[in-house]
Amino acid sequence: MRMVDIIHAKRSGLELTDDQIQFFVDGVVSGDIPDYQTSALLMAIYFQGMTDQEQSSLTMKMMESGDHLDLSSIPGVKVDKHSTGGVGDKVSIPLAAVVAALGIPVPMISGRGLGHTGGTLDKLEAIPGYQVEISEQDFINQVTKDKCAIIGATGNIAPADKKIYALRDVTDTVDSIPLIAGSIMSKKIASGTDALIIDVKTGAGAFMKTLDDSRNLAKALVGIGKGVGMQCMAMITDMNQPLGNAVGNALEIKESIELLKNNGPHDLVELTTTIGGYMAVMGNVATTPEDGKQMCQRVIENGDALASFKKMVADQHGDATVVDNPDGVLPQAKYQIELPAKVSGVVSKIVADEIGIASMLLGGGRQKADDKLDYSVGIYLHHKIGDSISAGESLLTIYSNREKIDDIKDLLYDNIEISDSATAPTLIYETIE
């Protein structure tokens, strides 16, 4: 069997066999297939798609390419959450602490940024000392003790996906339903979790731009999960504007801490507690999602969730004083530059993906797989869609380590509109169970 024949088959729109998919996955893991051929097949999949059988086969072969975590020694129903990625989407960080504070174990294996989106691991690494790579036994011990840990996939969990994931980011093949589904579910099945909720983003800042595509991805993910006996559901949520106010690694950690101090932005709080409510039902501590949502709000208000986050950071070797003094611990940008509104009116449009690109161009994201991140940079929105603003008032603050940023200002002005009126976007569109 030759890799070039597999590329040709998929390029021609043919269905790949299980043996061909196995050959591809094995070759990626062993390094026998060079990156340029892997990239060629990813592009062919992007354009030709995959059948349900191919998609399922790719997922399972990637999952079987490495180890399968055994979390059975951790008491209780292990509940995880995954997002398909967006701009300002830091939900996983406070959510893990909130749900853990309810006594539900949350073994969360997360990823890095893709394209214009931020990655949970990148954000957590803005905390000095925080280790996202810990041993399997340390992971199990921490979830047993603290009820939560957020780590990256170990070298032995879905190693095929680890290589493919990095190449997707730099070959513009990120927004492919079979590749997204295979990537997410191979890691989640291998991670040994009992229940999973998937936040499927839709809109300008998401990889799925339309509600129909988002629904198709959600159904594919839930179908794969249920097919292997996992409790699984999906929620389709908005990404036409950034979530919360902060975009950028350190800025988003600070905003996550503000949420856990009961001072988070409304949309971020609403989504975190709503998803947490469903996780509370999955974890058998609430009878309805609404009851679970109220429980989540209580542990935020009484400080239990903040204490849970602080323990997790400390046990993963991070500087836990970040909770008490974020600005004194997190990296700080040299310049804070205001972007004033040119006219008065109502903010009617904030193109999420372009805001993410602006943060990436400042150094907060990767343009190449080996780019080093500047954790201190980013954008803080002072107004969201539906907010009134006067000419000269600051739309946002740009956190930068270079003084001249006319290119960033132009990009932001081009992608924020002020009109006479605006309709605020829907935050949560539907759930798929």
From TrEMBL:
It is an enzyme of class 2 (transferase). Residues 346-419 form the Pyrimidine nucleoside phosphorylase C-terminal domain. InterPro entries: Glycosyl_Trfase_fam3, Glycosyl_Trfase_fam3_N_dom, Glycosyl_Trfase_fam3_N_dom_sf, Nuc_phospho_transferase, PYNP-like_C_sf, PYNP_C, Pyrmidine_PPas_bac/euk, Pyrmidine_PPase_CS. It catalyses: uridine + phosphate = alpha-D-ribose 1-phosphate + uracil; thymidine + phosphate = 2-deoxy-alpha-D-ribose 1-phosphate + thymine; 2'-deoxyuridine + phosphate = 2-deoxy-alpha-D-ribose 1-phosphate + uracil. The keyword Amino-acid biosynthesis does not apply. GO terms for biological process: pyrimidine nucleobase metabolic process; pyrimidine nucleoside metabolic process. One of its GO terms (molecular function) is 1,4-alpha-oligoglucan phosphorylase activity. Its EC number is 2.4.2.2. Gene3D superfamilies: Nucleoside phosphorylase/phosphoribosyltransferase catalytic domain (3.40.1030.10), Pyrimidine nucleoside phosphorylase-like, C-terminal domain (3.90.1170.30), Transferase, Pyrimidine Nucleoside Phosphorylase, Chain C (1.20.970.10). Keywords: Glycosyltransferase, Transferase. Catalyzes phosphorolysis of the pyrimidine nucleosides uridine, thymidine and 2'-deoxyuridine with the formation of the corresponding pyrimidine base and ribose-1-phosphate. This is Pyrimidine-nucleoside phosphorylase. The lineage of its organism: Bacteria, Bacillati, Bacillota, Bacilli, Lactobacillales.
